[in-house]
Amino acid sequence: MARIDLQKIAHAYAPNPKGPADYALQPLDHVWEDGGAYALLGPSGCGKSTLLNVISGLLRPSEGRVLFDGRDVTDLPTKERNIAQVFQFPVIYDTMTVFENLAFPLRNRGFGNQQVEERVHEVADMLELTPVLQTRAQGLTADAKQTISLGRGLVRSDVTAILFDEPLTVIDPHLKWLLRRKLKQIHEHSQLTLVYVTHDQNEALTFADKVVVMNEGAVLQLGTPQELFESPAHTFIGHFIGSPGMNFLPCALDGAEAVVENARIGLIDGLADKARQQGKQWEIGVRPEFLKLSREPGLGTVPVSVTAVQDLGNFKIVTVQLGALTLKVKVPEDQEVPADQAQLGFTPELTKLYADGFLVG
Amino acid sequence: MTLKLDNVSKQVGRDTHLYPIDLELKPGLNVVIGPTLSGKTSLMRMMAGLDKPSSGRILIDGRDVTHDPIQKRNVAMVYQQFINYPSFTVYDNIASPLKLAGHGKAEIERRVMEVAAMLHLEPFLKRLPGELSGGQQQRTAMARALAKDSELLLFDEPLVNLDYKLREELRTEMQEIFKRRQAVVVYATTEPLEALLLGGTSTVLDAGRVLQHGSTLQVYHQPATVRAGQIFSDPPINTIEGKVADGMAWLGEHIRVPLSGHLANLVPAEYRFGVRANHLFIAPCSAEDVKVVAITELAEVNGSETFIHVTHHGTYWVVQEEGVHSLGLGKEINLYVNPRHLFAFDQADRLVAAPSLEQQAATAEVNHGAH
User: Fold this and answer.
1) Chain B residues 342-371 with a CB less than 8 Å from chain A
2) Which residues of A fall within a CB distance of 8 Å from B304?
3) What is the pTM of this model?
4) What is the DSSP letter of A97?
5) How much is the pLDDT for A199?
6) pLDDT given at position A215
7) Of A149, A166, A176, which is closest to residue A41 (Cα–Cα)?
8) Which residues in chain A touch residue B360, judged by CB atoms under 8 angstroms apart?
9) What ipTM did this prediction achieve?
């Protein structure tokens, strides 16, 4: 296992890029720790697969260097980088048994029979494949085949890193829970360096220690799931992470407070001043989870009208109107929602401010 | 319009895809929820007239349509894959069923523009499907289905191949669109959250059998069987073997719960008790809470919540906690469950006691008052 250094990496498909628009991958400079679980998260076309290809060696970046444990691998092809890969669709040999499928990557690397036996049984145990080890892969369900693919990725413990490209997309939701749990447990015990590409925020946030959020070729934030949730560095992340995403309200600044549709909203000390220095277009960002809905006015509440309530069983999503702006509020299942007029409570510590799209502070 | 399935089954060779089903669907949204291979697609293909049932009859407003092919039924279907005519523009894709039905040019244009506006497709009407993103392609397929006046609209997991955020957006839009239609809408999904967002009625399907049918919220709050509860909860509902004896309910060997509230009428017998992940807590919330000692196996954080996987004397449970909690693995932890949140199932796994919603609301009021 290894540390991955991405030193001033950038990629443009055409020679002589002139500006940011010419880059498929905007410049980035990261150190990914040995034994870390990293997720690359973003919508289709955000550049996450480009970055994965730079790490796997499928794509040579037009700028910068890739180091594995300090060794420059920028010019090495995939097969010389000593990595394992798991793809979106099962890559297995239908005519071989499950055992032989799992053993294949080990035999390829010249492992002895005894080591092969040991490792295959260990991995089969973890993934609950032991009962089907002698079965041909052909007759198995799509889910089982993808589990074997995962096993093939995990079977070698001497790899630099394991790269996963949307590995659970074709898996049933109930089995997803199980496989995600397995991957997480395997990571806890083995301390392998894992890189996981997905467009599914839940998958990224539950799997990874650190999430790399990308949009339009640029890394917008590298942070823990908690950091991304509590302090999204950019309005895009606030919107993309969380369901529903963060509420954004264009605002003016007056003294230390924000003014939204004539309503005054308290901010933490000094935030308004920083925002004035940082940019010109200001927005308040607040998570639906961090808003409080009540009948009676109180400290820091503003009047709103309730326009819709969605009962989702273990919580409700309430849509409210503040002047011309629409907000979503997440309330517990057992809280009664006022029918028409209500008060919306903001907590300064949980109310973020954005200047020209970027987090202030 | 009413769609009625009368003892409908589907046999393919020696495999039974659907066991005999009786179902009556009314205009509005009807969710069919079940895991992959539960029979959702088989069911919809028969409703559409793409396949014939092996037994039974399909009735529309009492009229037997079992042997009518899809062309003779007034139905539209949207599939998982984005299916459009690749050489037609988006406009012509949406217009195609209207042209087939022989509508005039002005009427066609009016309807195409109406659904295009609803699905935000106006800027793309002159493009070919190949020039669109996946989300836009699926919107085009949906627009085509919505353009004609079908009395039956079938959606077979239409969002499953789309990006997460797009799915969120389209779900909200669809809910609005379905509200405005008089048609019987049947919507197949594997995801409880999607069913709850769409509302309407839900039919729980598993291994070719209907486990339950009712209003979506009722099915969620009163799953007829353990399996229905598992299918209609994400994460699946936690269960534990237990019994009622000596005037107490025993969950496993170590958890003792008084027989109060909705549990009061349970007679001495063996039961399986259930509790949803969001009703287990790592700190006590009220005086009635019962403590459960468990070992942590894994903590998954999804940003706003932590899913804590635990074992309690060999029983595996998931706890869903608001906020981010880092817990050591393999550590002993105390969990708390309020008896008012417990489900009880009999030995045949049928529901015998479900948390009463009024009781929950009342307790919640008291709790809020106390804060």
Assistant:
1) 360-361, 363-365, 368
2) 229, 242, 287, 289
3) 0.82
4) B
5) 86
6) 93
7) A166
8) 333-334
9) 0.74
